[in-house]
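User: Can you model how 6-O-phosphono-beta-D-glucopyranose sits in this protein?
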Amino acid sequence: MQDAFDLVIFGGTGDLSRRKLLPALYAGLVAGRVDMASRIVLTSRSGLKTSTHTWLEELFEQYVPACGVDADTLDTFAGMVTVVELGLTDGGPDWEALKALLQSDDGRALVHFLAVPPAVFTRTCELLGEYDLNGQRARVVLEKPLGHDLESAQAINADVGRCFDESQTFRIDHYLGKEAVQNLLALRFSNIMFEELWSARTIDHIQITIAEDLGVEGRGGFYEGTGAMRDMVQNHLLQLLCLVAMEPPARLDGDSIRDEKLKVLKSLKQYSGPEIDSNVVRAQYTAGAMAGEAVGSYKDDLELDHESSTETFVAIKTYIENWRWANVPFYMRTGKRLPDRFAEIVIQFKPIPHSPHAGWGKHINPNRFIIRMQPEDHLALRMMVKNHGSKSEALKEVEMNLDVVGDGGTRLGPYLRLILDAARGDQSLFVHRDEVEHAWRWVDNIIEHWQQADSPLKTYQAGTWGPYEVHDLMVRDGRQWFHETSGRLNNG
Ligand code: BG6
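Assistant: Here's the modeled complex, given as structure tokens:
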């Protein structure tokens, strides 16, 4: 178990804290990963209407699986949590009290998690500075979105940078904390065979998908004017692309990994206007059906009485213009109200150059390496083998499972892993300011074109896989989205 730490969650009674952070910390306590001497301070504008214990109990009933909450652990956890009323505009007695509360003489890490809108990042950091809460043991964790374009991101980074050094600044992308993403790094850099195969010589193309079945739920206010490009592509999808495509870093430490990811972002193909229209699809869902139930459109969900040009789906074909990846297309897509919820990277290898058996013909599927992050963590290799018991010309495709099931270790949820890393001062799974800014530069180029050219927004029915153009992005290249090709395999 790592040392006890102090964690202040600004926006501590808000949505992210309730749904993700507190359940993750509770799971960390249960798993023996969070020291019970740690302190968790939740700041809130208006405080709680019940006791902290009751509030947590009700919260965990909703967000921690039923088998997970036990009375003694809940008591211990509630004893670690303090809720404080605190404004984020002006200092004053509440801030003095916070400072006093956070006094510590054991040199423990002090992690400030800013689960608040980016518009208040600057002032919160200034106040942390004014009250001397940004010293050596302090770290600041910034939840996305980091701005809404390059300019606003630069302004936030500069403001935060005046109060916290880059080595104290932890920009979170929770996709980097997912188990399968960690495993991707482990497999890539601890096995020579992957490195030997990892390039344009053997890889045909790469697909990255984050599909969600939910609509915009209660987040319409945020989503309208944000859209899938800013909400998902600028961060999660580009970060996943970086991890797949980066060169092997000299060391698996924060600076080395982030340097390599940055090189990938700098090598992304910059499309000009008309190229954007043919390589990027944007769309919004209309009314449809999910699992047999009728569901409304995006505009219904937001109760909008005017047209909206916010995209809830984006698909992109892009390239990384360097030696390793020359001419290998990277297809990315993400959308809300799709038929299924999954997140997956598919690395599809080239077909064999020559079939030595006339009977094999088109029955040979290309090899695929699959990294699934959602709904379960899963890594697998798909290969062709002889069909057991039949003649050698009969082949079948099998899936080689690369998970280490039952290894006795505890799987940490992404937020717990990232909070523990921040407390330890390990930045390898966090995003450097240069990465954020380069990702914005690339995304801004596309969004600006959409705005200037008034590019048409396509539509798709809720409960479908997006407009026809998404399918076409692949088919016109003679390829297919993996979910459209793969059936369940019978490995028996
Ligand atoms: C968030 C986005 O960053 O990621 C949400 O703001 C999205 O719109 C979520 O639903 C998806 O995360 P996950 O881990 O549930 O796939």
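A couple of observations from the model: Residues 433-453 form the longest helix (21 residues). The radius of gyration is 24 Å.
User: Helpful, thanks.
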